[in-house]
Specification:
By secondary structure, the chain is α/β, with parallel strands linked by helices. The chain has one domain: Metallo-beta-lactamase, Chain A (4-Layer Sandwich). Helix content is 20%, strand content 22%. It has helices at 2-11, 64-69, 76-83, 101-104, 107-114, 124-130, 238-243, 264-270, 299-309, and strands at 23-25, 34-40, 43-48, 51-55, 93-95, 119-122, 140-142, 157-159, 162-169, 204-212, 218-224, 248-251, 274-277, 313-315, 322-325. An eight-stranded mixed sheet has the order 1-15-2-3-4-5-6-7. It has a seven-stranded mixed sheet with strand order 8-9-10-11-12-13-14, with no helix packed on it. α3 (76-83) packs across α5. Mean pLDDT is 93; it is low at 1-13. The structure holds zinc ion (ZN). Zinc ion is lined by residues 98, 100, 171, 201, 227. Zinc ion binds at residues 98, 100, 171, 201, 227.
């Protein structure tokens, strides 16, 4: 990744700034809005009424050289510092789309201390990486038993007033058709992974997240991905979207050039009302430093392509930005 960053300097990759910070309230006065908070990287808090879902956050942010040549582990003090402001005691689930360290390494501390009631929805590889050392492996609900795709709806995972459907996906390459840290883990680990290379991606999923009303009707539908995927990987089932399109789609811009038709294909598949961009920043910088865009991606070109096919509102949020959306 250090090499990649250097290449970016040479190539002069386009920089971008966050398009939102603080509070973005699209539903002023709405009693029961859909709320989202961007925690940076793949991390979001998504809530409606008493139902809260979290997606795998990262606050440890080891530097690029450190991650490449030294051992890494979760910086639990940083996790506590940045998770403590949020009340996640009743959070129902933590969604992890793939098992790279920037999506899974800080999940054990988050789950044990901050979201003690949450189930962890993740792949078999993620469950095996969490193994015997983390204290949370028995809280993993395996995504593959419920997963669907464009042609075949999967099964819903029910967590109170929220239901979740994993969507079979695939981790796109990071650069030049090369994917960092590929692989699966077939047996539970007894010890904590210590190298970035040990946090292999494993089976990869996107997710549909439905928040249900009192009568069981869908009040809000959210799509979440934590890695760019080649279409139709990660697509929601056409039959479900025909019944109800997505309210908010969380899409990843970083490395979009590595697959064809991202984001166009997902916009066509999901027909979202709003789009939020996540995992857009350079996560080798500490959380305390200003955000800058991930290297190697032409973010201005991503924006241009998104605008070409999507006429609705969209944002690239600064960390901690809070959104409120009303019903469609
Ligand atoms: Zn990844």
């Amino acid at each position: 990744m250090y090499v990649a960053a250097c290449l970016c300097v040479v190539a002069g990759c386009a920089g971008v700034s966050p398009t939102a910070h603080g509070l973005v309230d699209i539903a002023p006065g709405v009693e029961d809005p859909l709320g989202l908070v961007y925690l940076g990287n793949g991390g979001w808090i998504i809530s409606h009424g008493p139902d809260t879902v979290l997606t795998g956050p990262l606050f440890s942010n080891p530097g690029a050289v450190h991650a490449a040549v030294l051992s890494i582990r979760s910086d639990t003090a940083e996790v506590d510092r940045y998770m403590s402001p949020y009340d996640l005691a009743g959070a129902k689930a933590i969604l992890v789309g793939h098992a790279h360290y920037d999506h899974l390494m800080d999940v054990p501390r988050t789950a044990v201390i901050h979201a003690p009631s949450a189930r962890i929805v993740a792949s078999r590889t993620a469950a095996n990486l969490l193994g015997g050392w983390s204290g949370v492996a028995d809280r993993v609900d395996l995504a593959e038993e419920y997963a669907g795709d464009q042609e075949r709806p999967g099964r819903w995972m029910a967590y109170g007033g929220v239901r979740i459907m994993p969507l079979r996906s695939h981790h796109g390459p990071h650069y030049a058709s090369y994917t960092l840290y590929p692989g699966t883990v077939e047996r539970p680990r007894a010890d904590e992974p210590t190298w970035a290379t040990e946090w292999v991606d494993g089976e990869t999923y996107a997710f549909l997240i439905d928040f249900l009303g009192a009568a069981g009707a869908v009040e809000f539908r959210v799509f979440y991905q934590d890695a760019v995927a080649e279409p139709p990987y990660g697509f929601a089932p056409d039959a479900l979207i025909a019944e109800r399109a997505v309210d908010v789609a969380i899409l990843v811009p970083s490395t979009f050039e590595q697959v064809p038709w991202h984001p166009e294909a997902l916009i066509d598949n999901l027909r979202p009302r709003y789009v939020l961009l996540g995992h857009w920043e350079d996560f080798f910088s500490p959380v305390s430093e200003p955000m800058k865009p991930s290297p190697m991606t032409d973010h201005a070109e991503f924006d241009r392509r998104l605008r070409r096919v999507f006429g609705g509102d969209w944002w690239r949020p600064a960390r901690w930005t809070e959104f409120r959306f009303g019903p469609g």
